[in-house]
Each structure stands twice: as C-alpha cells, then as structure tokens.
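Catalogue entry: protein
Contents: sequence, fold tokens
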Amino acid sequence: MKNFILIILVSLIAGCAANIKQSVKTSNMQQGAIPNSISVAISSSNSISKSRDLTKSITELNTLITTDYKGNLIPSNSSNQADLSVEITIEHFRYVSGFGRFMAGVMVGDAELMLNVKLVDLSTNQIVSESQLDTRSEFSEGIFGATTSRQLEAMSKKIVDIINSSAKNS
C-alpha cells in the first residue's frame, strides 16, 4: 500500500511529457560554414487573441531556447547582425496551467501549442528549413496530461535540435 501511494504521488508530480508532431515543410540544407551567431524572434499569429498567458509563454519559450542552446544567440532586436535567423510563429495556443490540470483534470481542457519554425540564412535571405511543430494534451491523460509549461519545454528542446541539425548541415 505504501508503494502504491508513492507511485501515485510521483505520477501526480511528474505528469506526462508532451508529444510533438513535426512536419517539415522545407529543407534546403547545404554544406557550408557553421553560423557564428543566431537570432531568435518569437511572435504570434494574428488569428490568436493576445493575452497575459500568451505573452508569458512567449517569454518562457525564449528563455528556454536561450538556456538550451549552447551557441551564440543574439536578441532579434539587437543591432548586431546574425548569420541565421530563427523565426517562430505561434499558430495555435490554448493555455492550461499545472494547477488547473491538477485541480480540474480533464475538465480544464487540452493544452494546445502549434508553432511554425523557420530558419533563414541572413546572408542570402533564403529559408534553410521550415517545420511545423504541434503538441496537445489528450483527454485520456487526465490529470497527467501535459500542461503548457511542459509543452514549452518540449518545444524548446525540439527547436534547439532543429537549429543544431541546421548548423551541422549549413
């Protein structure tokens, strides 16, 4: 009985990781020099209504990417010119907090996040790679379903993987 309670407690705290579906729209990766610096710009589609949760999530995603990426990232509004631009557009967004998921379970609804990630070589202004990343929690996951913060963590890791694979191939 003690082990059962411990397993339930760990499951409630840990929850489920977000599953990401990736569809690659464009991939024009060529052999060349590894970019010295990369700029990241995150925005939301005009079809998404602006909210405090959206603004907070954009900031959190930017922080996570900056933390996860081990190369030279420069702010997109910086006067320094980057070699590669990562343009992230939030196409679909539905915020679900961890507290809401824990207290209301599936009744709080599904956390949804869809991003369009475009890598642009700034010296040629050509798209190096474009992918669409989509993740959503499932009804069957109940209180263990992914929350927006878990989705942002998973998306950050996937975006860094895309940047790294592009840097290896560019």
